[in-house]
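Appendix B, example 12.
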Amino acid sequence: MKTPTRILAALGAAATLVACSVPSTGPSGRPGVEVTATDPSLAASTDMVGNRISGTVSLRGMGAAAGLEVKVYAAESGPQMPHWTTVTDGTGHFEVSVPAGSYNVLVRKPGSNLAAARFGVQANTVVDIDLVPTGEIRGKVVTKDGVDMTGTQVLVPGSDLSAWTDAEGSFVLGSVPFGSYTLVARRPAERILPRAVLDQGISPLVTVEAGTMAPVTEIPLVWDDQATASIGASGGFEDQPLEDQPLAVEFAPHPAALVYRLTVLDDEGMLLGQATGSAPPLAIFGLPAGLHWYHLSYSVTNGIAGAWAISKPRKAEVFGPRPADFALINPGTFVMGEAGSTNVTQSVTLTQGFFMQKTHVTQAQWQTLMNDNPSFRGCADCPVEQVSWFDAIGFANALSRKGGLPEVYNADGSLKSGSDIYATTGYRLPTEAEWEYAYRAGTTTRWYNGDDESKVGDIAWFGGNSGYRTQPVGQKQPNAFGLFDMAGNVWQWTNDWHDNYPGGALTDPAGPQSGSSRVVRGGSWFYDASIARAAFRGRSPTDYRSGDVGFRLARSRP
């Protein structure tokens, strides 16, 4: 005998049946109970010898399976057409002799809505059938007044049980096996987020059991989450390093929630990141720059079986340059300047770590934030140029506002924090000392890759290799801090006024208090390699613009 095959079906009165094929010959099988044919011609068939459909029924959780009605009929007909009817014996066994052909089999408990089974078997194979007690759940999906709820799906997570609401939000979920459930109601997405939902709600725990009326439940789709998104600081992550600044979402808690989830998707509905937590805010780190969709969810079951209430999506912008574009520069001491080039050399100690942008600010980054491009040569990945010192600090302030950070500069270029630039927390230009320390990256040579001028082309775009134009950032070898183009491509504005060095040992120097021009560093695509040295200093008025002058940003470590 073949191994018995069990197929479980939880069906209502209108059961779905599957055809089964019976061969024309076979062994005699076990004795059955009395079989009644509704058509005398069926009982007279000479093909019935040795062909049987038999099985055993168990009535799970509802006592003995004796006296259950078993109906067998030809697959191409219906249950009202000629068929064979029998009942199960005291052990739940049934057996029906039939002619060769394909059949449907229905097992039903009289006087109830219990019905099974859908399976196909060969003759003389005993088939186990579970008759599962089921009931129904009635309810309503509740949302704002006047909203047409047609097409809202109600389902049991982890199963294929589902129903659809009418325009008022009412639903009937039938053929639900006895047990306790949390239902989910959801409205499919429109226009965007094809793999997400616009609204999704969850019900309280609902129990379906014997001897009770169908339970009635409400599923709310209304959650006034009052969500707002920001970058880092206003989300309570002020102490995180810049490269770890997340998209943070504040929201109003739901009184029934045990856990919350933040989901961020792109315009195609593809998942970019998720975060969970027991209280606001929620944050996701390392997102790419751009305008993204996010939605919030809560669960009253800790997310068991996928039961989540989901809010409508909103848009949030992760601006560029994003935190990953910055390198953390740790505190240290170095010799600033170069004998024979600067008036003196001096020992400088920087006591605070800071972040330095890995490349120049690009034209694409400027365009995204400022909605224009002042550059002489259009190239999205090339440094922005034709920007004055005031243009550069204007960009820094705009980026700080975008990230929910305090602005560093007043309109006249003075510091909002007073005289201590190292105490600021927003985006700014690096001090001249920070710039040279970051350029050297622990080296003491003329260029950060050594003293051999013939190898400067490995790290810099200058007059000898640039074609006398800007080049895309990040193409040359970085220094040990992971910074690109510290030498060449475009001059870089610093925060300092220009003057001679004071000399001696300095701690956290910020340059002179006033002057007529600001320090520029690094050389450019126009000048020769010697100008791209670590210690070479240039200067320009604060309103000066040129096709070979740009900048990169810094930020004090919080």
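DSSP finds four helices and 34 strands in the chain. The longest helix spans residues 389-402.
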